[in-house]
Structure formats: C-alpha cells, structure tokens
Amino acid sequence: MLKKTTLVAVLCALPCYALAQSASGAATGGASVSPSGSAATVGSGGSAAAGGTSASTLGTAGTSTGQSGTSSSIGVGGSAAAANGKTKSQSKVNPNATNAHSKAMANEGGGTWSKSMTHTKNHKGTLSSRTKSMAHHPGGPPVKSTVGSSVGTE
Amino acid sequence: MKSIVFGMTVLTALAVAAQAESATSSSSTSSDGTRSSVSSSEPNNNCKTVQLKPGEKPPTSSGALTSSVTAGGGTVSGSTTLPNGTTQSTTGRGATSMSSSTSDGKTVVTSSDGTCTVYIDPVSK
Questions:
Q1: Which of A15, A38, A69, B72 is least enclosed, having the fewest CB within 10 Å?
Q2: What residue numbers bound the domain in which B57 lies?
Q3: Which alpha helices (H) appear in chain B, and where do they start and end?
C-alpha cells in the first residue's frame, strides 16, 4: 500500500513541474524637447518564476532640463520569494543618484531558482535601464529575458 | 497505512516555512539642491506566430531586446532593436519593448511599433 501511494504521489507531482518556469521583461522610454527645455524618462523591469520561487526587479530614471536648471530622479527595486528556500534582494542607488542596481534571487535548491537584475543609470543626461531575468527548473534549459531601454536628448 | 502516509504529508507541508523579502530604493535630485523621491506595459492580442525550426532559437535567447529614444530639434524618435539586428522604428513618441519566455517553448516579443511575434519552439511544445 505504501509503495502504491508513493507512486501515485510521484506521478501527480511530475506534470505539475513540467511547465514550471517563466521569465519576462519590459522596457520603455520617452522624451520631449521644446524651446523651454527637454525631458526624458526610462524604465525597465523583469520577473522570473520557477517552481516555488520568484524574483522581480525594476528601475526607472528621469531627467528634466529647463531655464532654471536640471532635475533628475532614479529609482530601483526588487523582490524575491521562495515558499521553501532562500531569498535575497538588494537595491542600491549611488550618492549622486546617477547609478542604481537592484538584484533579487530565490533558490529552493535542487536546481530550481529564479533571479532578476536591473541596472539603471543616468550618464551625462542619457538615461538607460536594463533588466535581465532568468529562471530554471531541472529537466530543461533556463528561460531568460533581457530587455533594455535608453533615452537621450540631443 | 494510507491514513498514516497522508498524515505525514500534511505535517510536512505545515512544517515548511515560507520565506520572502523585498527591497526598494529611490532618490531624486534637482539643480537647486533639493531632494525628494518617486514607475508600465500593454498587452497586444494581434501577435504574429512564428514556428521555429528544430535547433532554431527565438531572437531574445541570444541577447538583449533594446529600445532607444532620441529627442532633439523638436522631434522624438524611438526604435527597438532585436538581438538579430532587426530594428523597428517609430517617430513622434517613445519606445517600448517586451519579452516573455516560458518553458512550454513560447517566447513573445513586442517592439516599439506595436509588432508582436510569438516564437514557438517545436521541441518544447
């Protein structure tokens, strides 16, 4: 009876994990120019999930230049979750608010993991954001998504 | 025996500890020295479907899907470049790009001009 019960449990578990990984991302950017000034914004984000793990990160940046000067903003964030495993997420913006990184990862062991990373920066008024997300579950290659966007005003 | 096995399963499930954490960070600056702080996508149902040949990979598997926007001289132009070098451009607005991959072999790529393509891997299908 025990063997039969165990066998049934294994047979039920396998199909559940067959399609158990995904990675996606999106990037966007916009800009405007007018006689009174210029403005630009950029953003990217991504998510990955495998088994009981998930990880997401995103980043945004914006800048506006007018007669009174320049105003800029930058932000990143991330999150990770694992029902039965380890997670780690870290986000950081440098003191000048020109460079920001976010990294999130979740790992439940046995080769099942998901992670996402975003790097957003403002380099001399050119904004860019890039997000890479990956997920892996044993039995197949990892799935991944890499998206990025850059915006500049001439 | 069966009830004992099920009992053990329930106990195991209850013993699993859920773990999650998140972190965010943001900052903004302006030229007057003040600081404050301050984040989209659209689905497209008109996707073209491409059946990949055995061994063929969807474009995003070989590199990044990138969008770029340039503004100057009163105009704004945007474009999305696939890793295979194909570029789709727009004028007068920004740019977006999206990709999504799943283990069932489907990869969805959306570009700045609204073009949406679903790449289907015959092996994983």
A1: A15
A2: 46-125
A3: 2-15
pLDDT, tens digit, for every residue of B60-90? 666 778 888 888 777 788 888 877 777 878 7
Does B107 map to a domain?
yes
Highest mean pLDDT among A111-115, B40-44, B54-58, B74-78: A111-115
- The whole-chain average pLDDT of chain B stands at 64
Confidence of residue B28 (pLDDT cuts 50, 70, 90): very low
For chain A, the residue count is 154
Residues 6+ apart with CB under 8 A from A12: none
First to last CA, chain A: 75
Closest C-alpha to B2, from A8, A22, A117, A147: A8
Domain count, chain B: 1
A-contacting residues in B 19-38 (Cβ below 8 Å): 19-32, 37-38
Rg (CA), chain B: 23
pLDDT of A44-63, one tens digit each? 999 999 999 999 999 999 99
Mutate to test the interface with A, among B6, B10, B60, B69 (most CBs of A within 10 A): B69
Q: Is residue B4 part of a domain?
A: no
> What are the distances in angstroms from CA A83 to CA A31, B10, B75?
41, 15, 49
CA distances from residue B20 to A31, A52, A77, B12 in whole angstroms, order as listed: 36, 11, 15, 19
Helices (H), A90-154: none
What's this model's pTM, rounded to 2 decimal places?
A: 0.76
Contact check, Cβ <8 Å, A151/B69: yes
From the list B2, B67, B68, the residue facing A1 with the nearest CB is B2
**What is the torsion angle, in degrees rounded to the nearest 10, for the CA atoms of residue A33, residue A35, residue A37 and residue A42?**
0
